[in-house]
Amino acid sequence: MEYYDQHLHTHFSYDSNADFEDYLTNYEGFVVTTEHFDLANPVTKTDDIPDYKAYSQTIDTLNRKYGNRVLKGIEIGYIASEKERILEYLTDKDYDLKLLSVHHNGSFDYLDDEVKEMDPAIVIPQYFAQLSEALDVVKADVFAHFDYGFRVFGLSVAEFQAYEALFLPILDKVIDKKLAFELNAKSAYLYNNLALYDYVIDLYQSRGGTLFSIGSDGHYLEHFRFHFDDLFALLRQKGVTELALYQNGQQIMVPLPNETRD
Ligand SMILES: [Zn+2]
Ligand SMILES: [Zn+2]
């Protein structure tokens, strides 16, 4: 099986207008979308919940048309105040792939402009505390964009190292709970955090981590499989030979592509 994009959105996410067919008509392999589930979202001032019934029906229809290559996914945005409702929503639903994220803290989304004016020394430890709790509470397959909470600060590796002691227990938890570590192409290449990813991959490996997932976090076709060849090459340099895929919540290890497409 060829490695496919494991972080992708359609109009079932509040912040995307993309259609499944945008991706399906431009790619021959599996397509999984990971739709936003963000309760008490300060961005929209509402609960952003993908319509599971409509989502499942759409996927069933597309699977008949496109030869069963559409998979179900969700990006679970953890927020402590909504813990019970998050767990309740997830109980009776089936997903091939579950991503775990923290996007907001109830008052602001970590990408909001106001965060740029805040003190990283206050924001980052709070974000890490949320990640730590999210990992304890929610069972998921992939630990998404470790850097979301501090993207707006544009940290250098040296600046990140000031928080490393706080971050290592989170990485250890990711490893202990057997989640795959996501390389988020949008973070790395659109938000210029490639150096941080490069550094943290080494940290993850040094703690014993071996499970990698690559996702574009695309909200439209132009970002689908964004910079995948570059991320494959980066992992190859680090001695990685396999990537983790998830279908029906089961992990499937597939070879890291070793040829760069022309
Ligand atoms: Zn996200
Ligand atoms: Zn996303």
UniProtKB/TrEMBL annotation:
**Entry keyword annotation includes Hydrolase:** yes
Where does the PHP domain start and stop, copy by copy?
Answer: 5-185
Per its record, the protein catalyses: L-histidinol phosphate + H2O = L-histidinol + phosphate
Pathway entry: Amino-acid biosynthesis; L-histidine biosynthesis; L-histidine from 5-phospho-alpha-D-ribose 1-diphosphate: step 8/9
Under Enzyme Commission nomenclature, its number is 3.1.3.15
One Gene Ontology cellular component term attached to this UniProt record is: cytoplasm
Q: Which InterPro entries match?
A: Histidinol_P_phosphatase_HisJ (IPR010140), PHP_dom (IPR004013), Pol/histidinol_Pase-like (IPR016195)
Keyword field: Amino-acid biosynthesis, Histidine biosynthesis, Hydrolase
Reply yes or no: does the keyword Amino-acid biosynthesis apply.
yes
Please provide the Gene Ontology terms (biological process) for this protein. Answer: L-histidine biosynthetic process
Pfam families reported for this sequence? PHP (PF02811)
One GO molecular function term of this record is: histidinol-phosphatase activity
Which family does the record claim for this protein?
Belongs to the PHP hydrolase family. HisK subfamily.
> What name is this protein filed under?
Histidinol-phosphatase
**Provenance organism:** Enterococcus sulfureus ATCC 49903
